[in-house]
Protein backbone atom coordinates (compact mmCIF):
# COMPACT_ATOMS: atom_id res chain seq x y z
CA UNK A 1 0.00 0.00 0.00
CA UNK A 2 2.80 2.44 0.87
CA UNK A 3 4.44 1.76 -2.49
CA UNK A 4 1.17 2.60 -4.25
CA UNK A 5 0.91 5.88 -2.31
CA UNK A 6 4.44 6.87 -3.27
CA UNK A 7 3.75 6.13 -6.95
CA UNK A 8 0.55 8.16 -6.79
CA UNK A 9 2.39 11.12 -5.24
CA UNK A 10 5.09 10.94 -7.93
CA UNK A 11 2.35 11.00 -10.57
CA UNK A 12 0.46 13.89 -8.99
CA UNK A 13 3.51 16.11 -8.69
CA UNK A 14 3.83 16.00 -12.49
CA UNK A 15 0.28 17.43 -12.76
CA UNK A 16 0.67 20.19 -10.16
CA UNK A 17 0.43 23.81 -11.24
CA UNK A 18 2.96 26.18 -9.73
CA UNK A 19 0.44 29.05 -9.90
CA UNK A 20 -0.47 30.00 -6.28
CA UNK A 21 -4.07 29.28 -5.35
CA UNK A 22 -4.79 27.09 -8.34
CA UNK A 23 -6.97 24.01 -7.91
CA UNK A 24 -5.42 20.57 -8.28
CA UNK A 25 -7.07 17.33 -9.38
CA UNK A 26 -6.99 14.86 -6.51
CA UNK A 27 -9.08 11.84 -7.58
CA UNK A 28 -10.60 10.20 -10.63
CA UNK A 29 -13.25 12.29 -12.31
CA UNK A 30 -13.63 15.93 -11.48
CA UNK A 31 -12.67 16.10 -7.79
CA UNK A 32 -10.46 19.11 -7.20
CA UNK A 33 -8.70 20.58 -4.15
CA UNK A 34 -8.53 24.31 -3.63
CA UNK A 35 -7.95 26.56 -0.64
CA UNK A 36 -9.89 29.40 -2.26
CA UNK A 37 -12.83 27.90 -4.23
CA UNK A 38 -15.35 27.70 -1.35
CA UNK A 39 -16.71 31.07 -0.20
CA UNK A 40 -16.45 31.84 3.53
CA UNK A 41 -20.25 31.88 3.93
CA UNK A 42 -20.53 28.33 2.57
CA UNK A 43 -17.65 27.18 4.77
CA UNK A 44 -19.48 28.55 7.82
CA UNK A 45 -22.73 26.80 6.79
CA UNK A 46 -20.92 23.48 6.32
CA UNK A 47 -19.22 23.81 9.69
CA UNK A 48 -22.58 24.48 11.35
CA UNK A 49 -24.14 21.46 9.62
CA UNK A 50 -21.32 19.15 10.76
CA UNK A 51 -21.28 20.42 14.36
CA UNK A 52 -23.89 17.87 15.61
CA UNK A 53 -21.67 15.05 14.31
CA UNK A 54 -18.74 16.47 16.27
CA UNK A 55 -20.68 17.06 19.48
CA UNK A 56 -20.73 13.44 20.62
CA UNK A 57 -19.30 11.90 23.80
CA UNK A 58 -15.50 11.69 23.81
CA UNK A 59 -15.57 7.89 23.97
CA UNK A 60 -17.43 7.76 20.61
CA UNK A 61 -14.98 9.97 18.74
CA UNK A 62 -12.61 8.35 16.25
CA UNK A 63 -9.48 10.45 15.97
CA UNK A 64 -7.44 9.86 12.86
CA UNK A 65 -4.35 7.85 13.80
CA UNK A 66 -1.24 10.00 14.16
CA UNK A 67 -3.16 13.30 14.12
CA UNK A 68 -2.66 14.06 17.84
CA UNK A 69 -6.46 14.45 18.14
CA UNK A 70 -6.55 17.17 15.48
CA UNK A 71 -8.41 15.20 12.78
CA UNK A 72 -11.75 13.73 13.82
CA UNK A 73 -12.93 11.08 11.36
CA UNK A 74 -16.72 11.37 11.25
CA UNK A 75 -16.86 8.50 8.75
CA UNK A 76 -13.43 7.32 7.68
CA UNK A 77 -13.49 6.69 3.90
CA UNK A 78 -10.67 4.15 4.06
CA UNK A 79 -12.80 1.90 6.27
CA UNK A 80 -15.65 1.81 3.74
CA UNK A 81 -14.23 2.23 0.21
CA UNK A 82 -15.89 1.42 -3.09
CA UNK A 83 -14.63 -1.99 -4.21
CA UNK A 84 -15.08 -2.24 -7.97
CA UNK A 85 -16.65 -5.54 -8.96
CA UNK A 86 -18.33 -5.85 -5.54
CA UNK A 87 -19.89 -2.57 -4.36
CA UNK A 88 -23.45 -1.87 -5.48
CA UNK A 89 -24.86 1.55 -6.36
CA UNK A 90 -28.35 2.79 -7.07
CA UNK A 91 -28.90 4.44 -10.43
CA UNK A 92 -30.83 7.60 -11.20
CA UNK A 93 -34.49 7.31 -10.33
CA UNK A 94 -33.97 4.47 -7.85
CA UNK A 95 -34.44 6.74 -4.84
CA UNK A 96 -32.36 7.12 -1.72
CA UNK A 97 -30.94 4.83 0.91
CA UNK A 98 -31.60 6.42 4.28
CA UNK A 99 -30.87 5.40 7.84
CA UNK A 100 -34.53 4.34 8.06
CA UNK A 101 -34.55 2.02 5.00
CA UNK A 102 -30.91 0.92 4.70
CA UNK A 103 -31.50 -2.61 6.00
CA UNK A 104 -34.50 -3.20 3.72
CA UNK A 105 -32.59 -1.89 0.68
CA UNK A 106 -29.40 -3.84 1.37
CA UNK A 107 -28.27 -5.64 -1.80
CA UNK A 108 -30.13 -3.35 -4.20
CA UNK A 109 -28.45 -1.59 -7.11
CA UNK A 110 -25.98 -2.66 -9.74
CA UNK A 111 -22.45 -3.87 -9.05
CA UNK A 112 -19.97 -1.18 -10.08
CA UNK A 113 -17.88 -2.55 -12.92
CA UNK A 114 -14.11 -2.42 -12.82
CA UNK A 115 -12.90 0.43 -14.96
CA UNK A 116 -9.80 0.57 -17.10
CA UNK A 117 -6.93 1.77 -14.93
CA UNK A 118 -5.92 5.40 -15.37
CA UNK A 119 -2.32 6.40 -14.77
CA UNK A 120 -1.83 7.13 -11.09
CA UNK A 121 -5.18 5.77 -9.90
CA UNK A 122 -6.37 2.44 -8.53
CA UNK A 123 -8.79 0.41 -10.64
CA UNK A 124 -9.72 -1.69 -7.58
CA UNK A 125 -10.70 0.77 -4.84
CA UNK A 126 -11.93 4.33 -4.41
CA UNK A 127 -13.02 6.39 -1.45
CA UNK A 128 -16.79 6.70 -1.48
CA UNK A 129 -17.82 9.44 -3.87
CA UNK A 130 -20.55 11.86 -2.97
CA UNK A 131 -21.56 13.19 -6.35
CA UNK A 132 -24.75 15.05 -5.46
CA UNK A 133 -26.37 15.80 -2.13
CA UNK A 134 -30.03 16.80 -1.93
CA UNK A 135 -30.60 19.30 0.89
CA UNK A 136 -33.90 20.69 -0.43
CA UNK A 137 -36.26 18.73 1.84
CA UNK A 138 -38.20 20.37 4.65
CA UNK A 139 -36.93 17.81 7.17
CA UNK A 140 -33.42 19.31 7.25
CA UNK A 141 -31.85 15.99 6.23
CA UNK A 142 -29.18 15.64 3.54
CA UNK A 143 -29.48 12.71 1.14
CA UNK A 144 -26.93 11.51 -1.39
CA UNK A 145 -28.36 11.16 -4.88
CA UNK A 146 -27.19 8.43 -7.21
CA UNK A 147 -25.21 9.75 -10.14
Automatic annotation (TrEMBL):
Pfam families: DUF4246. Residues 1-140 form the DUF4246 domain. Signal peptide: none annotated. PANTHER family: FE2OG DIOXYGENASE DOMAIN-CONTAINING PROTEIN, IFI3P. This is DUF4246 domain-containing protein. It comes from Laccaria amethystina LaAM-08-1.
Amino acid sequence: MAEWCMEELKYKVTRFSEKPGSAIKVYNGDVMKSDTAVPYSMKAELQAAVRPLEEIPAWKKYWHPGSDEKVLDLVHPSLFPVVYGRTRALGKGQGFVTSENCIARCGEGDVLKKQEALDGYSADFQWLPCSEVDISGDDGQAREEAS
